[in-house]
Amino acid sequence: MCIRDQFYYSPKYSINVIGDMNNIGEVALTNRDIRNFGGGFRRPSQGSGTSINLGDNGLGGLTNIGNAQEIVTKLGAANFSYAPQKNLDLSGFLIYNSSRLRTREESFVRYINSDLGIPDEETVQTGREATNQGLAKLSVSYKPNFNNQLDYDVIGRVSTESEIQNVESSVVGITNQVTDVEPFSINQNFNYYYTLDEKNIFALEAQHLISDEDPFYNALLGNDPTNNEADDDIEPGEPSEQDAFDNTAGVLGFDRDQFGYNLNQERRIKTNQLDAKVDYYYILNNKSNINVTLGTILSTQRFNSNIFQFLDSGSVFDPVAALTDGEGALLRNENDTEYNFSDVYLGFKYRLKTGKFTITPGLSLHSYGNKNTQFGTEFKDNFFRVLPEFETLVQFKKSETLTFRYNMSNSFTDVNSLAEGLVLNSFNNISFGNAELQNSLSHNLSLRYFSFNLFNYTNVVAIANYSKNIDQIRSLTNFDNVIQTSSFFNSNFADESANVFGRVERTFKKIRARMAVRFSYFKRNQFVQNIRTVSENFSQTYSPELRTNFRDAPNVRIRYDYSINSNDQGTTSTRFVTNAPSIEFDAYIWKSVTFRTDFTYTNQADGVRPSQSFQTWDASLAYRKDKDANWEYEVKASNLLDVDARINNSAGNISVFNSETFIQPRFVTFRVIYTL
Q1: Which of 120, 272, 407, 453 has a C-alpha 20 to 30 A away from that of 554?
Q2: In sequence order, what E strands does 27-87 have?
Q3: Does the CA dihedral 245-248-252-254 come out positive or negative?
Q4: How far apart (Å, rounded) are the C-alpha atoms in residues 294 and 298?
Q5: The predicted structure's pLDDT at residue 234
């Protein structure tokens, strides 16, 4: 492992450079961190009541770093800040990240409704991921005087991502998959604030995004060309002599007279979006103001895809699908879709402070335009909608507040759900869109309480949220063996979710006690094999904790996590109980030696099979002569018990999932650290 960190500072500018290379899983930034890093951008339309999903067609950092058997990473990063004038600030950063991961997971999926006719499946999945990512940002802030301020940011990202997977399935057999993608995006943000006088304030916010994603997918499956025909004479429950993929290959139009299926898919998704608004604030007095907002979202997405097959001879075969949609129309193995979305809105908010109350009612008027064009056929949907919102804040004290908020919101899907051609999400997950999909509407309520008492060091936080989704986009799924084909529709059945979180924390001299609880409820509707299933999930988690805070004496943190996850799938129910006590110990000895260790024991049980457990234990011992010393020496050990896998149990709408994810072995490292 090698880490380099250099920093230079002067009153006008500063430069910071950091580099890291290691193969022990200690990464400064993960693939997911970089992909999700927004650079501090906030969508101008975030509070408008409209949200549009642009989708994510990259690999997205499929594997959590903690769930990989082997991890090799390289990181190079630099940032700077420069103030050439008192009213002008420049800043930016540049990040390069490279990672190589090796993974292994063994899983078992049990389908809980026997009427669906889906066989249970055991899989052993091994994989390798390779990612190279580049990220750069430049920011400019200019404030010529008190009344004017201009901010501009631009962030660009580019990456090459590849994943190779080998899947051994008890139903399908052995499948090899390769996914490659080289996405890039440029996101620009412009803000201008102008104060005309003490009563009139203007703000302009605009954000522009362009992105280009080109995922390529390849899958190799075994095939016996002599057993393609259906077994009409077998008894119910007896295994078929057909290969598991034969029926699917037939309806997709693949050539089944090959000694293996070589499936390929090219996709290209281009996105161009402008999100902008102008805010006007009129200050009536020191207790009330009016906010008027004029804004727009303009979005265009182009989606092209093509499914083809390499034959044993090496020639390319373009299959013609025999699959039909719900109206009997023949589906294509390709897509050529352009999706245009627009939202022009006018918003009003009035804020009034009276006594302990701050009341903010508001509403926004929206003019929506949807148009998607596929193979020369156009579908349009233009409509108006009023979205109300309301917020009340009660200020009991300076450090004690209660906030209630309600808002109605509209959500729109991305081009992938609209494109009516067939798409291979994987060899066992095929989908096609619905050009007539509408938006979903949701009612959202939240209640938040916060209190901090400086005299007795008591901190209380409580949050409750409830959401009801109407016309939610849901999938219509059919299975052939374990291979699913899905489309989308606006469900007439409402989905609901509610969650409550609470935390109480108090300090008694050098001991801090904390109690946190979380309750979550979800109700979802799904249609599988033309059967409606309703899944209700209720989870509860309790987390008491004690922590010491001595300056010189050893410190310890003791925590216990207890959770119950209950799922009701209509015909059956499941219940998972997890117990996870943990302890952390930190001691500063002889003013030069630091010893740290942490241990966690996790036990999961479902009440049916024997419970499963795993442990994690890490420790380190560091020596530094005194606080002014430049040199530090450290011995660090991770996974001291050499545990080979983590256990995970969960339940979905129609299945129960159990898995073992293999992780890195025990590592003991010696480190030398030099501080300038």
Answers
A1: 453
A2: 50-52, 70-85
A3: positive
A4: 14
A5: 54
Over residues 497-525, the pLDDT tens digits come to 999 999 999 999 889 999 999 999 999 88
User: Can you tell me the distance from the alpha carbon of 611 to that of 190, in angstroms, rounded to the nearest whole number?
Assistant: 55
Asked which of 126-130, 136-140, 326-330 is least confident by mean pLDDT, the reply is 326-330
User: What does the alpha-carbon distance between residue 417 and residue 487 come to, in Å, rounded to a whole number?
Assistant: 8
383-416: pLDDT as tens digits: 999 999 999 999 998 899 999 999 999 999 999 9
pLDDT at 263 over 60: yes
Write the DSSP assignment of 428-457 as a string of letters: TEEEE--TT---EEEEEEEEEEEEEETTTT
* Cα distances (Å, whole numbers) of residue 441 to 54, 295, 340, 386, 444: 18, 20, 20, 12, 10
CA dist 528 and 569 (Å) reads 13
Q: Which of 119, 95, 100, 96 is nearest to 109 (CA)?
A: 119
| pLDDT tens readout for residues 361-373 | 999 999 999 999 9
**In 283-326, where does DSSP find H-type helix?**
none
Instruction: Output DSSP code: residue 196.
Output: -
Q: Is 26 helix (H, G, I), strand (E, B) or coil?
A: coil
Q: What is the DSSP string of 573-597?
A: EEEEEEEEEEEEEEEEETTTEEEEE
Model confidence at 2, pLDDT cuts 50, 70, 90, reads low
Pairwise CA distance, residues 525 & 534, whole Å = 5
Question: Could you tell me the end-to-end alpha-carbon distance of the chain, in angstroms, rounded to an integer?
Answer: 19
Which residues are CB-neighbours of 330 under 8 A, at least 6 positions away? 321, 322, 323, 324
pLDDT tens per residue across span 427-447: 999 999 999 999 999 999 999
Answer whether 260's CB lies under 8 Å from 245's CB. Answer: no
SS3 for 114?
helix
Instruction: Please state whether beta strands 473-480 and 511-528 pair in parallel, antiparallel, or not at all (unpaired).
Output: parallel
Percentage of the residues of the chain whose pLDDT score is greater than 90: 68
Closest CA to 674 of 639, 634, 615: 634
At residue 301's C-alpha, the angle toward residues 326 and 186, to 5°, is: 150
Stated as kind and residue range, the H or E segment containing 247 is: helix 246-252
- Tens digits of residue pLDDT in 90-124: 999 999 999 899 999 999 998 877 778 889 999 99
- Kind of pairing between the strands at 483-490 and 429-432: parallel
For 164, residues 6+ apart whose C-beta sits below 8 A from its C-beta are: 127, 128, 129, 176, 177, 178
Instruction: Give the whole-angstrom CA distance, residue 634 versus residue 668.
Output: 11
What does residue 36 show for φ and ψ, rounded to 5 degrees? -90, 0
* C-alpha 500, offset from chain centre: 21
- The residue assigned the tokens 């009409």 is 232
Q: Which two tokens stand for residue 538?
A: 């209720």
* Max intra-chain CA distance, the chain: 86
